[in-house]
Amino acid sequence: MATFSFLLLLPYVLSVSLAAEDELIVTTKSGQVQGKLLPVLDGEVRAFLGIPYAKPPVENLRFRPPQPADPWQGVKDATNYGNSCFQLRDTTFPDFQVFGFLSLPNNPNVRGNAGLMDQRLAIQWVVDNIAAFGGDPSQITLFGESAGSISVGLHVLSPGSNVLFKRAVMQSFVPTAPGATFDLEETWKRAIKLGTLLDCPTSAPAELETCLQRVNASQLAVAQFGVLSNLESYPFFPVVDGVFLPDTPKALLNSKSNTKELLLGVNKNEASYFLVYAVPGYDLGDSLISKKQLLYGLDLFFGKEIEPFASTITDLYSSVTADSGRFRDFLEKTVSDAVFNCPVQKFSASYEQSGGKPFLYYFQHRSSTNPWPEWMGVMHGYEIEFVFGLPLNASLGYTEEEVNMSKRFMKYWATFARTGNPGTDGQPWPMFTPENKKYITLDTQAPQFKSNLRAEECMFWD
């Protein structure tokens, strides 16, 4: 029986399926761990939870690259999850925060990307230990959505990471999308601003680091949002640091070492989720925004540099709808194309040209249990419940068609991890190339093979 491993960056959760009736005590290179049985539908899986792979990032380890966890004696209890990463309970976007992505000027200890290096250390732990759980270290697949997809994409491009796994799934974002990474100068400006907000000395990098390391975690988590401007959701981002990322993602994308199989995709109405939080006039009602609010939203997302292209954009999107929601839908389609649909296709095309094998999907089913307004459509993040099999829980009220769709999705994802092509039942998916631009539609119906997703619009945004 073939075995494989997923490393999920959602944030990441290690999930291993064992093929044989092994003992619940496993010997890793760090020491022995005691797992437990968990019920899954009509069966059981053996779960090993909270296994440490890195030392806690506290005190003088805060902001710095992670250090491997110390080995232990005896049998470690791995029947409960470990502590969660620190985050504010009321933040919508906790992924890229100061704790993992602070970069300090002229400080070699805090160059940024500690969060990505932490993920890399977790991947390395899987490589070193997965065989003890019945897995194959040569068949590791990374899997992430949204900010997790940016992380996965950066591991795909990073020379130090991409040798550790074989395949990757990237849902709804790519690391070459607008605003996915920062340069050092921008990150340093934010670090200095953060230091000023917290009354830390900012002239000497070492003193700034020491001061920020001593700030209470809750206070630091709140203060970091004081560095934001405009529409940004995250105070700190992955940075081109010269170490984890020796060059920009766009430059690394053209490397001839890009030979992996990738499963990438987008949802039909990605942007609607973000508009509700960011643009005046959008709410949980009909969000019938005015033209003035539309123009304000365009400025929020794209800035003044888009003004010379206003007439072109109007021509492209003026036919979205003729009803009272035309300005609302105009902005949703514009942002969905510029930030999601077109960057994902451009990334896929470039990756294929440099030797990789991308497969593209387009998810277009609105969940019957979705509580958001109907106009928001197939929102960002709403494929996850089907990929993870949530509809198989009968108490949640999904339709029979959605249950079957979820089963198909799980089979696609698992088949991709096992074979490198998500196609099932003797029907392989076509690879996306710059010439054919082929993709698969995913909904409750049988998948359809199509090409040229939003082609005219993407010619403009490219």
Write the layout of secondary structure elements.
Elements: E1 5-9, E2 12-15, E3 25-27, E4 32-34, E5 36-40, E6 43-47, E7 75-77, H1 98-101, H2 114-129, E8 140-145, H3 147-157, E9 167-171, H4 184-197, H5 205-214, H6 217-223, H7 249-253, E10 261-267, H8 272-278, H9 291-302, H10 310-317, H11 326-353, E11 357-363, H12 384-387, H13 400-419, E12 438-442, E13 448-451, H14 455-461
Parallel strand pairs: 1-8, 4-7, 8-9, 9-10, 10-11, 11-12
Antiparallel strand pairs: 1-2, 3-4, 5-6, 12-13
Helix pairs in contact: 9-11, 11-14
Pfam families: COesterase
Family: Belongs to the type-B carboxylesterase/lipase family.
GO biological process, one term: acetylcholine catabolic process
Structure description:
There is one protein chain. This protein is α/β, with parallel strands linked by helices. It folds into two domains: 5-227, Alpha/Beta hydrolase fold, catalytic domain (Rossmann fold, 3-Layer(aba) Sandwich), CATH 3.40.50.1820; 254-461, Rossmann fold, CATH 3.40.50. Helices cover 33% and strands 13% of the residues. It has helices at residues 98-101, 114-129, 147-157, 184-197, 205-214, 217-223, 249-253, 272-278, 291-302, 310-317, 326-353, 384-387, 400-419, 455-461; strands spanning 5-9, 12-15, 25-27, 32-34, 36-40, 43-47, 75-77, 140-145, 167-171, 261-267, 357-363, 438-442, 448-451. The protein has an eight-stranded mixed beta sheet with strand order 2-1-8-9-10-11-12-13, sandwiched between helices. Helix 11 (326-353) crosses helix 14 (455-461). The longest helix is centred in the last third of the chain and has 28 residues, at 326-353.
